[in-house]
Design goal:
223 residues, Rossmann fold, 2 domains, six-stranded mixed beta sheet, five-stranded parallel beta sheet, 8 helices
Length: 223
């Protein structure tokens, strides 16, 4: 029976996708997310979110999105799950893209004269900030969560390792080698990090956990 290591603890329905395909699963959280205190203006015209964690941080904050004291007019985000979280909070999502680079290009092309608040973590991709700076677009970064590595050593080899962020890759390789395992990545940024350590890199068809799992099932069924 093939065995997969997930660098993120999965939900029950996600585990079932692997177990029903007769694939054994080992899972752990390769990174830890901690929400940090932050201040926001009472009125935000345009907000950028590139992760679900940023949305959750705001939902968890004392200054909640729903709080009438803080109003966010329009949101721009990366990922379908991020969009769904924003909409569940009653927020208006103007544009969603699969990748930060795509969103950066969209903002430069369509919102060059607007200003933005970018809700992010302490370790974030530089694609959007650098693109906005290059094009003299006004924005303010608001750090709402902190990512720390949570390394764990494994005394075995897995048929595939599922990666969901560059930080997760760095955490795993700090104690382990990928060797002959298939490194199945949620997106191109994560894959770029994984390629530093192995040539066996596969990118999921969509930037969702379910898509990463589906790719793993497809590959391992051929074993």
């Amino acid at each position: 029976m093939p065995t997969v290591l997930s660098t993120k603890k999965l939900k029950e329905n996600q585990r079932s996708l692997l177990l029903n395909a007769a694939i054994s699963l080992v899972e752990y959280n390769a990174i830890k997310i901690e929400f940090v205190p932050f201040k926001v203006p009472s009125n935000i015209e345009n907000a950028i979110f590139t992760s679900q964690n940023a949305v959750k941080a705001i939902q968890d904050s004392r200054t909640k999105i729903q709080d009438s004291r803080t109003k966010i007019q329009d949101c721009f985000c990366v990922g379908k799950k991020t969009k769904l979280l924003l909409q569940e909070s009653g927020l208006n999502v103007i544009k969603m893209t699969e990748y930060a680079s795509e969103l950066a290009d969209y903002l430069v092309k369509n919102h060059k004269n607007d200003s933005f608040h970018f809700f992010c973590g302490n370790i974030r991709s530089d694609e959007i900030p650098s693109k906005l700076k290059e094009n003299n677009i006004t924005f303010e970064e608001i750090e709402v969560y902190k990512t720390t590595l949570n390394p764990k050593k494994f005394e075995r080899q897995f048929d595939a390792v599922l990666f969901f962020s560059p930080s997760g890759v760095r955490s795993f390789v700090s104690e382990n080698k990928i060797n002959t395992s298939e490194a199945i990545c949620i997106g191109t940024t994560t894959a770029t990090e994984a390629k530093k350590y192995t040539e066996n890199v596969v990118i999921a068809n969509a930037t969702t956990v379910e898509s990463v799992i589906a790719k793993a099932v497809k590959i391992l069924k051929s074993y």
